[in-house]
Amino acid sequence: MGLNQVASGERIHIGFFGMRNAGKSSIVNAVTGQQLSVVSDVKGTTTDPVKKAMELLPLGPVVMIDTPGLDDEGELGRLRVEKAKQVIGQTDIAVLVIDSMVGMSKQDEELLKLLTERKLPYVIVNNKADLLKERNECKDNELYVSAFTGEGIEALKERLGAFAQSKKSPKVLVSDLIEAGDLVVLVTPIDESAPKGRLILPQQLTIRDILDVHGIVVTCQDTELKQTLAGLTKKPKLVITDSQVFGKVSKDTPDDVMLTSFSVLMARYKGDLKELIKGAAALSKLKDGDKVLISEGCTHHRQCNDIGTVKVPHWIEEFTGVKPEFTFTSGGEFPQSREELSRYAVVVHCGGCTLNEAEMKHRILLCTEAEVPIVNYGIAIAQMHGILKRSIKPFSEVNEML
Question: pTM for the whole thing?
Answer without folding.
Answer: 0.81
